C-alpha cells in the first residue's frame, strides 16, 4: 500500500485528532493517541481495516523509533495485538520487522519487542521474520542487537521447531560465530548448539576451515545437546489447526510422513557443486575404456570430486548409465570402488538422489548376489545409504525387486530375502502391487532346495504380509503343487499370528472425519475453489461425510525435488500447441480438460509433486501455499521459473476466475516480482506466453476492487518492458469490446497511456482502424467510458493533429461537439511546446453520410448541451 492509500483508509476509520496525535511533537499527546489506537483495535472489522494499513499507520514517523520509551512500548504492543488479531501478510511484516528488531538494543523496550517478533512469526512464518531480522542485525554496528536476535531466535526454534531452511540463516550465523565482539560470538555459538538439536553434527560442516580453537568451542557446545530430542513445537500451530480438518481428508502426504520430520539435507547448509561440467565426453570415454586401469582412474577421479565437494547437485549428465555398468565391472576392484563412489554420491546429493534410483538400483542388487563377500557387503551398505537418503519406497517401483528375485542366483535370493526381512517391517508404505509381484517367488523360495534361501524367505513372509495382507498370499497358495500347499500355508499362518495391530493413525484420520463433527462438519471450501472443474481433487472432498479419503500411492512420500526444473521443454509445448496436439489456451471460463492438460504438462516438466498438489487443490488455502512457495523459490531459482513461465502464467489465469480475493491479490503481487526479475534479466516474452495470459489479465481490469485493478495496470506496464507495446495495444483493443463498463474504461485509459508513451505507431493494425473503434465508445451510455474514449482521441490529436479527426469515421454531431470542446480545453493545460496550434477556422469534420431513405435517430442522453456540460479535466497519463 502506498502512503496515500494508508492515509485515505485511515481517515475513513480513525478520528482526525488521533491521526495527528500519532505524529505530534509532544510525547504525552502521542501516548494518548497510541492508547486511543489500542482501544479502537478491538472494535475494528478485519475486512475494513487491513493489517498492512494498521502496521504502516502505527509505524508512521516517528513510529517505532519513538524516542520516548513509554510511547515506543505502546507502539510495539500495538504491533503485537495486530499480529495476534488480524491476518498479516509477508508485506505487512516487512513494514515493521526491522524497526521492531532495532528496539531489542534498549533494555526498556526489549521484552515488548521480543513479544512482537514472536507474534509476527506466529502470524506469518518464522522463516520470513528470522531471515529479515538476522540480515538487519548484521547491518548494525550495535552488538546488543545481534546478541538479542540470536537469543530470541534460539528460543523461537524451541517454540516453533525448525520452521525455516537453515541455508537462509547460516551465512549470518557464521558472521556471529566469527565476530570480534565476544558477546556476539558467544551468542552465535550458543545458537549453533541449539541448532544442532535439530540438525545433528551436520551443522558443524558449515564451519569447516575455521580456526581450530573456534571449532573446538562449537563442538563443545554441540556436545552439550548431544542426544537431545527436539521439543514439540508449541507455537506456529495455529495456522495448522485451522487447516486440520481439511488436511485430514485432502492432504497429499500420509500421516506417518507428517509425524516424522523430513530428513535434513546437508545441501541446505553447504553450497552445492555442479559436477556436470566435469562430466564431458572425454570423461565418459575414460569411464567406459577397454583398459581397466583407465576405467579405475576415471572412477577414482569422480570419487575425489565428490569427496572434495561434499555436497553436489543431482545433475550427472550422461554419467549414470555408464557408471552403472561399472557396478558390475569384470574387474572386482573397479566394481567395489564404484559401489563406494555411489554410496558417497548418495550422501552428497541427499534426497535428490532418488531420480537416479532406476539407473543404479538393479546393479546394486546384482552386486548383492556377487560370489565375493566384500562385494556383497559393499552393495548392502550402498543400498542402505541410498534408502536412508531418498526413502526405501523408491526401490519398490518398476518391479525391480521382483525381477531380481526371479532371475537371481541363490546367493542373491538369500541376501535379498534377508535384507527384505529386515527392512520391510520398518518401511511405512510400499506399493501393494510391487509386493504382490514378489509373492510367487516368495512362496516358491520358502521350499527352495537351498537352506539359506528357505530360511531367509520364510523370515521375509511377515514383512511381505504387512504390506499385502494375508489374503493375496493365501490365494497364491492355490497355484502351488498339492504337496507344497500344506507346509506353505502353515508358514503363512505362523506369520499371520505375528502381524502387528493396525496403527492408531489410520483410525485417527477416520475419527477426525466422523467423530469430530464440530470441526469437520463445519469445514467449508473457500470461495476461490476450483473444485467445479478439477475432477481429480474433488473426489476426496466427498469422502468427508462417508468413507475415508483414499490416498494415491504416488502421494505417500514427500517430493524433495526442486519446485521447478530448469529445462527446455517449453519449446516442445509450443510446438505441440501449434501442431494441435494439445488444446489452445483459449476459453471463456476454465473447463476441466484445460485444467487436466495443464496438470499433465507440469508433471511432464518435472514440477515438484507437492507444488502440483497445492496448485490443483480444491481449497483456496493450498493455492496460497503454492504462491508462497513460488515466491520463496524465485530468489534462488529464477532461471527455472523463466523456463516454466508459460505453465506459471497459465495457472495464474485459472486463479483469475476464482472469487477469493486473497489468492488473487497474492498472485498479482507474486507476478509483479516475477516480471521485475524478468525485466532485469532482459527477458523477451514469447508470443504463446502472451496469448495465454494477456487476454485474461485484461479481463481483471474490470474487477470491482481498486487494489486488483491497480495491480493489473502496474503489471501491464511492466509487461511492456519485455513484450511489444503494439501487441499489448491489440490485446487491450479487444478488451474494449467487453460488456463490463469498468473494463472498457480501464482499457481505454491504458490505450491512452500506450499512445502517449510510444506514439501513434503503437496503434495496430493501423491508427485509423484503432481510432474508429475508440470513437465508437464516445456514444457509450456510461459516462466514464465516454470520458476515457474522448481522452484517448485527444491524446492522438496532440500527437498527429487534424488528420486524426478524419480517421474517426462517421460519428454524431453531439459526440463531435464533445470531442471538440475537450480538445480546446485540454490544449490550454498542456505545455506550449507539445500543443499543435489550433486552427482559427472550425475543426474540419468528416463529410456527412449519404442521405438514406429513412433517417436513423441519434441516441438521446439525459445530459446538458456540450457548452453547458461540466466535463472533467483530462487526467495525466500515469
From TrEMBL:
Residues 862-871 have a biased composition (Acidic residues). Residues 1-231, 268-501, 593-832 form the TOG domain. One of its GO terms (biological process) is spindle organization. Its main location: cytoplasm. The keyword Mitochondrion does not apply. Keywords: Cytoplasm, Cytoskeleton. GO terms for cellular component: cytoskeleton. One of its GO terms (molecular function) is microtubule plus-end binding. Gene3D superfamilies: Leucine-rich Repeat Variant. Residues 844-858 have a biased composition (Pro residues). It is found in: Cytoplasm, Cytoskeleton. Residues 224-265, 496-566, 828-878 are annotated as: Disordered. The keyword Cytoplasm applies. PANTHER family: MICROTUBULE ASSOCIATED PROTEIN XMAP215. This is TOG domain-containing protein. It comes from Graphocephala atropunctata.
Amino acid at each position: 500500500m502506498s502512503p496515500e492509500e494508508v492515509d485515505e483508509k485511515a481517515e475513513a476509520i480513525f478520528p482526525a485528532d488521533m491521526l495527528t496525535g500519532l505524529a505530534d511533537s509532544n510525547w504525552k499527546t502521542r501516548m494518548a493517541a497510541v492508547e486511543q489506537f489500542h482501544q479502537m483495535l478491538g472494535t475494528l472489522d478485519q475486512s475494513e481495516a487491513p493489517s498492512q494499513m494498521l502496521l504502516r499507520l502505527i509505524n508512521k514517523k516517528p513510529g517505532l523509533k519513538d524516542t520516548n520509551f513509554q510511547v515506543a512500548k505502546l507502539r510495539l504492543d500495538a504491533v503485537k495485538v495486530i499480529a495476534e488479531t488480524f491476518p498479516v501478510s509477508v508485506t505487512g511484516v516487512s513494514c515493521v520487522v526491522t524497526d521492531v528488531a532495532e528496539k531489542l538494543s534498549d533494555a526498556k523496550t526489549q521484552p515488548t519487542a521480543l513479544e512482537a517478533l514472536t507474534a509476527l512469526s506466529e502470524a506469518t512464518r518464522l522463516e520470513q521474520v528470522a531471515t529479515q531480522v538476522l540480515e538487519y542485525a548484521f547491518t548494525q554496528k550495535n552488538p546488543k542487537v545481534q546478541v538479542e536476535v540470536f537469543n530470541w531466535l534460539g528460543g523461537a526454534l524451541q517454540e516453533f521447531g525448525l520452521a525455516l531452511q537453515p541455508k537462509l540463516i547460516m551465512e549470518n550465523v557464521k558472521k556471529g560465530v566469527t565476530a570480534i565482539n565476544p558477546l556476539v560470538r558467544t551468542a552465535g555459538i550458543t545458537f549453533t548448539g541449539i541448532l544442532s538439536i535439530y540438525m545433528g553434527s551436520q551443522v558443524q560442516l558449515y564451519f569447516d576451515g575455521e580456526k581450530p580453537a573456534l571449532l573446538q568451542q562449537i563442538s563443545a557446545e554441540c556436545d552439550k545437546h548431544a542426544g537431545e530430542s527436539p521439543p514439540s513445537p508449541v507455537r506456529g500451530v495455529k495456522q495448522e489447526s485451522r487447516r486440520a480438518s481439511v488436511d485430514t481428508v485432502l492432504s497429499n502426504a500420509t500421516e506417518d510422513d507428517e509425524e516424522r520430520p523430513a530428513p535434513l539435507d546437508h545441501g541446505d547448509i553447504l553450497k552445492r557443486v555442479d559436477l556436470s561440467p566435469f562430466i564431458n565426453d572425454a570423461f565418459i570415454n575414460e569411464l567406459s575404456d577397454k583398459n581397466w586401469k583407465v576405467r579405475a582412474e576415471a572412477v577414482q577421479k569422480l570419487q575425489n570430486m565428490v569427496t572434495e565437494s561434499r555436497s553436489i547437485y543431482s545433475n550427472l549428465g550422461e554419467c549414470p548409465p555408464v557408471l552403472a555398468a561399472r557396478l558390475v565391472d569384470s574387474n572386482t576392484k573397479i566394481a567395489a570402488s564404484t559401489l563406494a563412489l555411489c554410496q558417497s554420491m548418495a550422501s552428497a546429493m541427499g534426497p535428490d538422489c532418488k531420480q537416479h534410483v532406476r539407473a543404479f538400483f538393479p546393479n546394486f542388487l546384482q552386486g548383492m548376489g556377487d560370489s565375493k563377500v566384500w562385494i556383497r557387503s559393499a552393495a548392502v551398505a550402498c543400498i542402505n545409504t541410498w534408502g536412508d537418503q531418498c526413502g526405501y519406497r523408491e526401490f519398490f517401483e518398476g518391479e525391480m525387486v521382483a525381477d531380481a528375485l526371479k532371475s537371481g542366483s541363490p546367493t542373491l535370493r538369500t541376501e535379498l530375502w534377508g535384507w527384505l526381512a529386515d527392512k520391510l517391517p520398518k518401511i511405512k508404505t510400499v506399493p501393494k502391487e510391487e509386493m504382490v509381484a514378489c509373492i510367487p517367488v516368495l512362496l516358491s523360495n520358502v521350499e527352495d532346495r537351498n537352506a539359506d534361501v528357505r530360511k531367509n524367505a520364510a523370515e521375509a513372509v511377515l514383512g511381505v504380509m504387512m504390506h499385502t495382507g494375508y489374503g493375496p498370499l493365501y490365494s497364491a497358495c492355490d497355484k502351488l503343487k498339492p504337496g507344497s500347499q500344506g507346509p506353505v500355508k502353515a508358514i503363512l499362518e505362523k506369520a499371520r499370528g505375528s502381524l502387528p495391530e493396525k496403527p492408531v493413525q489410520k483410525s485417527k484420520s477416520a475419527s477426525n472425519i466422523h467423530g469430530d463433527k464440530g470441526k469437520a462438519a463445519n469445514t467449508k471450501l473457500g470461495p476461490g475453489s476450483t473444485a467445479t472443474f478439477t475432477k481429480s481433487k474433488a473426489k476426496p472432498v466427498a469422502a468427508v461425510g462417508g468413507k475415508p479419503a483414499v490416498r494415491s500411492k504416488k502421494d505417500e512420500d514427500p517430493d524433495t525435488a526442486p519446485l521447478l526444473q530448469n529445462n527446455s521443454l517449453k519449446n516442445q509445448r509450443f510446438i505441440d500447441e501449434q501442431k494441435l496436439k494439445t488444446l489452445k489456451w483459449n476459453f471463456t471460463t476454465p473447463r476441466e480438460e484445460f485444467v487436466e492438460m495443464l496438470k499433465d504438462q507440469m508433471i511432464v516438466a518435472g514440477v515438484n509433486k507437492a507444488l502440483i498438489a497445492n496448485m490443483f487443490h480444491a481449497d483456496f488455502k493450498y493455492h496460497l501455499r503454492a504462491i508462497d512457495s513460488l515466491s520463496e523459490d524465485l530468489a534462488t531459482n529464477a532461471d527455472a521459473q523463466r523456463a516454466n513461465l508459460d505453465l506459471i502464467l497459465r495457472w495464474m489465469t485459472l486463479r483469475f476466475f476464482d472469487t477469493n480475493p486473497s489468492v488473487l491479490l497474492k498472485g498479482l503481487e507474486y507476478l509483479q516480482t516475477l516480471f521485475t526479475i524478468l525485466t532485469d534479466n532482459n527477458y523477451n516474452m514469447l508470443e504463446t506466453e502472451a496469448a495465454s495470459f494477456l487476454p485474461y489479465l485484461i479481463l481483471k481490469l474490470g474487477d470491482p476492487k481498486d487494489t486488483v485493478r491497480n495491480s493489473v495496470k502496474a503489471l501491464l506496464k511492466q509487461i511492456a518492458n519485455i513484450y511489444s507495446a503494439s501487441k499489448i495495444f491489440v490485446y487491450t483493443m479487444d478488451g474494449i469490446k467487453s460488456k463490463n463498463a469498468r473494463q472498457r474504461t480501464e482499457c481505454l485509459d491504458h490505450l491512452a497511456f500506450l499512445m502517449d508513451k510510444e506514439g501513434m505507431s503503437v496503434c495496430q493494425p493501423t491508427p485509423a482502424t484503432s481510432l474508429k473503434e475508440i470513437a465508437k465508445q464516445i456514444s457509450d451510455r456510461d459516462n466514464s467510458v465516454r470520458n476515457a474514449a474522448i481522452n484517448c482521441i485527444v491524446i492522438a490529436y496532440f500527437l498527429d493533429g487534424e488528420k486524426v479527426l478524419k480517421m474517426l469515421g462517421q460519428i454524431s454531431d453531439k459526440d463531435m461537439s464533445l470531442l471538440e470542446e475537450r480538445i480546446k480545453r485540454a490544449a490550454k493545460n498542456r505545455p506550449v511546446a507539445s500543443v499543435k496550434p489550433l486552427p482559427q477556422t472550425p475543426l474540419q469534420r468528416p463529410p456527412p453520410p449519404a442521405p438514406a431513405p429513412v433517417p436513423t435517430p441519434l441516441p438521446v442522453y439525459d445530459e446538458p448541451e456540450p457548452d453547458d456540460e461540466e466535463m472533467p479535466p483530462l487526467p495525466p497519463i500515469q
